[in-house]
Write a structure and sequence with these properties.
The chain is of the alpha+beta class. The protein contains four helices and eight strands.
C-alpha cells in the first residue's frame, strides 16, 4: 500500500431544484389541515378533521425527512491503488458510488471539452458542484463491469497526491507539471 491513505469529504452544493422540493413539501403540510377541515365541513363527518390533524403531524415528520435528504456529501478515499467514492445522505446512509483502480485511469483532466466527445457506457457524477467547471476533474477509466466510464469529482491536493503514485506518467506530467505530451 504505497501512497498511504487519504480521505476527503465534499459537501454537495444545493441547487434551485432542492429549494423547490423544500418549498413544495412545506406547502403541502401547511395545506393539509385546511383541506381536512374543508372536507369535514362539506361531508359533516368530524373524524376527517382528526385524521387531517394526524396527517399534518405525519407531514411535519415527512418535511423534516425531505429536508434531511437534501444534505448530500461525497467521500473520496485513496487507499493503495483504489479510489473509492461514497455518497453520504444526511449522515444516515452511506452508498458506494464507484471504486476506481487508479492505474486504469486513461485520462484525468480539468477540461470538460477533452472528455465530452468520448463515448462512455456509465458516468459517475460526484462533485461538490456540477456547474463549477474550475474545480471539477474528469477521469476516464475502464471498468470490468461497465466498460469505458467517466468520473466527475472534486478532489483536493491530498487526494491527487495519493493518486499520483499510481497514475500513468503522461497523466502526471499533464496534470501536475502542465507538460502536454499527448
Amino acid at each position: 500500500m504505497d501512497g498511504g491513505f487519504n480521505e476527503q469529504v465534499v459537501k454537495r452544493v444545493n441547487k434551485p431544484k432542492q429549494l423547490v422540493i423544500k418549498i413544495v413539501a412545506v406547502l403541502i403540510v401547511v395545506m393539509l389541515p385546511f383541506i381536512a377541515a374543508g372536507i369535514a365541513i362539506l361531508t359533516g363527518v368530524q373524524y376527517i378533521f382528526v385524521v387531517g390533524l394526524f396527517l399534518t403531524l405525519a407531514g411535519i415528520y415527512g418535511v423534516w425527512y425531505v429536508f434531511s435528504l437534501q444534505k448530500v456529501e461525497f467521500e473520496y478515499s485513496v487507499a493503495g491503488n483504489d479510489l473509492d467514492i461514497y455518497k453520504i445522505i444526511s449522515l444516515r446512509k452511506r452508498k458506494p458510488v464507484c471504486r476506481v483502480p487508479i492505474n486504469e485511469i486513461t485520462v484525468l483532466t480539468r477540461e470538460e471539452k477533452e472528455v465530452e466527445n468520448v463515448r462512455v457506457t456509465k458516468a459517475f457524477v460526484a462533485p461538490r458542484d456540477v456547474d463549477a467547471k474550475d474545480e471539477n476533474y474528469y477521469a476516464l477509466f475502464n471498468s470490468p463491469a461497465f466498460g469505458k466510464c467517466l468520473l466527475v469529482f472534486s478532489p483536493n491536493e491530498q487526494i491527487l497526491d495519493g493518486m499520483r503514485v499510481h497514475l500513468d506518467k503522461l497523466i502526471v506530467h499533464e496534470l501536475f507539471y502542465k507538460n502536454k505530451q499527448r
